[in-house]
Amino acid sequence: MGQIQGASVILYVKTPGAPDALNNPTYTKTPVQVDNVVIGQPTTDDITTSINLYGKRIEYMLGIPKGDTHDWEDTTVEFFGHTYRTFGHEIVGIEANVPLSWHKKIRVERYG
Length: 112
Prior knowledge:
Blueprint: E1 7-16, E2 27-40, H1 44-54, E3 60-65, E4 76-79, E5 82-92, E6 102-110
Antiparallel strand pairs: 1-2, 1-4, 2-3, 3-6, 4-5, 5-6
């Protein structure tokens, strides 16, 4: 039996910039490759809950590797040749109590 191994995804890291003319915050997005991300199918309950809570249809759940410090909330990711948008809050487990290599999950919807 083989080991579980994640895939590489491109995460667009947001960096705050100068406010625009209406004093709204602006951001630049820098693509960063993150390795060993598990890309999983959502359950029927996950889909129903995401529609009821967020009004969005979840496409995948991403398992974020332990030690990753990126901000995964409300950002863009690319994998499988498509662009997705994360939504909702990260679901975080206690790193020391999770036996595998991933301790956070984030929902993604198809984008663009």
